[in-house]
Amino acid sequence: MRLFLLVSLTMLAFAANSILGRAAVGGGYMDATGFGLWRLLSGALMLAFLCRVRGLETWSRERVLRPASLWGGAALTLYMAGFTLAYQDLDAGLGALVLFGVVQISMFLWGAVRGSRTGAAQAAGAVLAFFGLAYVVWPAEGGGAPLAASLLMAASGLGWGIYSLLGRGARQPLVSTAVNFAWSSVMMLPVMLLAGGGTVLSGYGVLLAVLSGAVTSGLGYALWYRVLPRLLPAAAATVQLSVPVIAILAGAVLLGESIGLRLVFGSVAVLGGIALAVLRPPAARAPLAE
């Protein structure tokens, strides 16, 4: 029961990132890239604090300057930039669905390219998830999502997929995440300047960004890495199917977002396809983190 509660709390934290991002950026309390920078900075500080509490060395020259840290920071920046810019126009639940779907599909395709065994059910699941996403975001009269925002969120999902692949072999994931957040904070500065960010700032917006960075990202990731070793890979991958569902329901309740039939049908296709794709032997798959 304790493990179930911890996993549930972690999934709630992951879904809350979409709610907080949409509330701050979509609500006009903060500009997109400014929100992303505040989230990264507060997340880096929280993760560094957790490393210090646990007696983990974080800021050695070798660790900070190694290529894996730089690439990890770059991938995290792609995720954060696409995430925040997309939430200028996307609803929280739809954004989470696109993000989650692209992450899972990209990881599945990478495994297939690297020679992982792919059965007919897994291939069919990946195709179903892809067409489900296409159905949700395809422009149509009276339905469909903003295409530019959907592409930005897809780029964000690709960034997180790359980040997950880079971090699979990390011996100290908490330390690596802290360093990656610090690097991404630096890399986000030119992105913010190029996007004309940093111009909209409010106390409420900063509060939402800090909550997203320090609590639902920093503490959320720390909790995920704590429970991850106690989960079978199949369970770790499958349990994340709950994240878009939580975000869709929370977006409707907390932000007043509508849940139309297009979103319902698309979500069933995406999540059903992903469920088929992840039902593989545990040894053939590595868990992901949203």
UniProtKB/TrEMBL annotation:
Ranges of residues in domain EamA: 150-278
Alphabetical keyword list: Membrane, Transmembrane, Transmembrane helix
Membrane topology term: Multi-pass membrane protein
Cellular localisation: Membrane
Domain of life: Bacteria
SUPFAM superfamilies: Multidrug resistance efflux transporter EmrE
TM spans (from-to): 37-56, 68-87, 93-113, 120-138, 144-166, 178-198, 204-224, 231-253, 259-279
Signal peptide residue numbers: none
Gene Ontology cellular component terms for the protein in this record: membrane
InterPro entries recorded: AA-Vitamin_Transporters, EamA_dom, EmrE-like
Protein name, entry field: Membrane protein
